[in-house]
Amino acid sequence: MASRQRRTRRIGIGRRLAALLVGTAMAVAALVAAPPAATAATPWVTVDENGFVTFTISADEAQSTFGDVTQIVAEGNFGPSANWAQWGLTRRGANWTSVMGPLEPGLYYYQFTADDTNVVKDPTNPTSVASEPEWSTFFVPGDSASLLADVPEGDGGSVETMTYRSTVTRGERSALVWTPPGYDADRREPYPVLYLQHGSGQGYRDWVEVGRATQIFDNLTLRGEMEPMVVVMGDGNVPDFQKELLRNIMREARHDYNISHSPSQQALAGLSMGGYQTLSTLFERPGEFAYIGSFAGFVFGSASDVDAEKINEGTELLRLYTGNVTDLAYNYNYRLMQQFDEAGVEYQFDGVNPDRGHNWNAWQENLIDFMPRLFRDAPDDGPSPGHLPLEAEFQQPPAGTTPTPWITEDGFVTFETTTEFKDAQNVTVWGNWAPGGSWIRVEMSRVGDRWRATVGPLKPGFHYYRLIVDRVPTKDASNPTHVTTEPAWSTFFIPGESARLLADVPEGQGGTVETMTYQSTVAGAERKAYVWTPPGYDPDRAEPYPVFYLQHGGGQNYTDWIEMGRAKQILDNHFLDGNLEPMVVVMGNGNSSNFTRELRENIVPVSLERYNISDDPSQRALAGLSMGGGQTYTVLKAFPGEFAYIGAFSAGFGSATGVDAQAINDGTTLLKIYVGDPTDFVYPSFISSLTVMDQLGIDYEYDGPTPGPHGWDAWQKNLIDFAPLLFRQE
Predict the structure, then answer these.
(1) Domain boundary among 141, 161, 187
(2) Could you give the number of structural domains in the chain?
(3) Which range of residues forms the domain containing residue 218?
(4) What is the spatial order of strands in the sheet that 670-674 belongs to?
(5) CATH number, domain at 115?
(6) What is the pTM of this model?
């Protein structure tokens, strides 16, 4: 399949002027249909019943499609607020692959991009989007997206193509027309009609191919929540939209369909550029349409001098919609409402959708809210449930004036580079804000001689990220945080009740973290470990403290549980909450040719020498993540009973050869095991190891997958659950 060489184009109109909008609309007036998709035995994208999406491209297919490349990403509406983001695929064996999810129910659109500019359509997915030839779509079903689902065959309305001669472009043009179930071309009473417009860079097919308009209309009609009407989706890519609408689209629709000519039975709505066209029509021809909807629409200039009296007299409904601060129309809508208030224009505002940006997920919700209000008495005129007031413009600090990231109280995070990358061609910020805490990239935009991006809303918790500058991982030099084992990473914390156990406790109330240095007989070198002692630790206490040895994973070190795992905060908070037995926690260096020897001959003896801790196996615990979990299992199998409490986070049990299950059961008070969800790449081997342990008769506790990937978001949850279980008499 021939690849397309172009940069990713964002949805919507950005900060273009109105004249530029209309001018560029002419350039895209002739939409090119996507080429037919090839049929392949193995789909590149599969979705399971729980909303987990697997991307798999064989190395041979990748070579024939992209050529020699160093990275492949799936780009789509996967990011926070359903904004465009890049999901990386990893080369494993004979495939480029990854698992994302669980995704919220809804429609997803995506393309594959290699090395930033080599963009292709998924050849194994027959869906297409005419205005975006590289896009494919897939649908994740679920109750929250029931209005976006297909209705049973034969129960819905019909979509037809209406072709007409345009006096504006002097050529043949097309529109899509939806007619309701049971549409009667000879009905005595004409149907009311909605003219529904697309956005910039889009076309008349987008509301059907990406907006799920057909499904929305069908479902609302079958539920009795929408008046039977005809919906005309025209092509707004013209230099004079009002002339095209009034003289061509409406004239042809009235000729071809049994629709009303009365303004009281006519509605006009549009998204982004279509919202601008809708509002401009309202201002210049008030009363032409009794129902007006602007979905993230723009108004350039002032609306303070509009004829409010004529608008109010001729308009039954004027309803405005906007997404959150990542919506390009956010500030425009704030100013518009201020001007409407000043002019005396009567309008409704659906409120700020806190979880959506400038994208189809938002506009689908807008359409769902708008349609039941047409040509009937609406049950209410207030905002949708959960939507927020728009009280001020979103203003970022001037470039170069504030540390990055800049975090708002409601969890929106703005990243900004230094001027060092002013000549870069492509900059993204890559962090753990995909579902479950997986990594996903968000494009940054050039602002002067810097790059910026706003991401959010992010959930409360510990976040980490790095910049990718022309495919080179780069540290955010403006963020003073650091991760010893990952020099390109930076971190930040968003407070909130759901992340309370990850937050710092008041100064002076927590435990103490010290560095324990020792000479390793295994490594033949000086090594270090971190040691947490609880508040009030007494080195002379008559009863030694129980001890918990906590290990890191591959590519990490003893520093990671403190710098990334928030172990100190977790232990401090649990202790202050009364959920943790007073204990000492030793975080050793597991990067050893023989970890079992390193633990038994160095880490444990030195800890016993330096700290007031017990050498009684019943008072000792051992746990680790990933590689550290594997090392924990190795110790358990080789020396059952030396540690009464065992925890393995995201690790498989391994071989059953030589395992004494009875000795493990007799010597272990608690063996608790954890794994992430299907985005954790060890999930398949972990599930297999359960069978091995069951066949051996080993007693263990497993509460099911931890939401999250093979990453710190999951391992923090594991430690939060595991630590309070240790050394409890009950």
Answers:
(1) 141
(2) 4
(3) 151-373
(4) 512-520, 525-533, 584-587, 547-551, 620-625, 645-649, 670-674
(5) 2.60.40.10
(6) 0.90
End-to-end CA distance of the chain: 64
Q: Give the torsion sign (CA, 167, 168, 173, 174).
A: negative
**590 class by beta-carbon count within 10 Å (0-12 exposed, 13-18 middle, 19+ buried):** buried
CA angle 579, 548, 514 (to 5 degrees): 95
Q: Which of 92, 150, 138, 91 is nearest to 111 (CA)?
A: 138
**What does residue 624 show for φ and ψ, rounded to 5 degrees?**
-160, 160
Q: What are all long-range contacts of 87-93, with beta carbons under 8 Å and residues at least 24 apart?
A: 87/55, 87/434, 87/440, 87/441, 88/430, 88/439, 88/440, 88/441, 89/55, 89/57, 91/59, 92/681
**Does residue 269 share a domain with residue 340?**
yes
* Tens-place pLDDT, residues 683-696: 999 999 999 999 99
User: What are the residues facing 194 on neighbouring strands?
Assistant: 231, 267
Residue-wise pLDDT for 224-240, tens only, equals 999 999 999 999 999 99
Integer Cα distance of 24 and 18 in angstroms: 10
Distance between CA atoms of residues 469 and 424, nearest Å: 7
> 126: Cβ–Cβ under 8 A, 6 or more apart, which residues?
37
| Residue type present at position 423 | D
How many Å separate Cα 524 from the centre of its chain? 46
Beta carbons of 225 and 144 less than 8 angstroms apart: no
23 vs 35: CA distance, rounded Å:
27
Answer yes or no: is 22 within a domain: no
Q: What is 442-496 written as a DSSP string?
A: EE-EEETTEEEEEE-PPPSEEEEEEEEETTEEE--TT-----TT-TT-EEEEE--
Cis geometry, peptide bond prior to residue 354 (ω within 30 degrees of 0) = no
Q: Which of 678, 525, 684 is nearest to 591 (CA)?
A: 525
211 token code pair? 């907006």
Is residue 30, in this structure, part of any structural domain at all? Answer: no
Indicate if 472 and 566 belong to the same structural domain.
no
Of the given ranges (29-43, 371-385, 434-448, 518-532), which has the lowest mean pLDDT?
Answer: 29-43
**CB-based contact 127:133 (threshold 8 Å):** no
Q: What value does the mean pLDDT take over residues 604-610?
A: 98
d(CA 144, CA 586): 46
Which tens digits make up the pLDDT trace of 484-504? 999 999 999 999 999 999 999
Q: Nearest 5°: phi and psi at 139?
A: -120, 130
Q: Angle of helix 273-284 relative to helix 18-27, nearest 10 degrees?
A: 120
Count of C-beta atoms within a 10 Å radius of residue 470: 14
Residue type, 246: L
CB atoms inside a 10 Å sphere around CB 234 = 29
Closest to 628 in 3D by CA, of 674, 666, 668? 674
Quick one: 655 exposed, middle or buried, by C-beta within 10 A (0-12, 13-18, 19+)?
A: exposed
CA dist., res. 669 & res. 640, Å (int)? 11
Strand 106-114 versus strand 136-140 pairing type: antiparallel
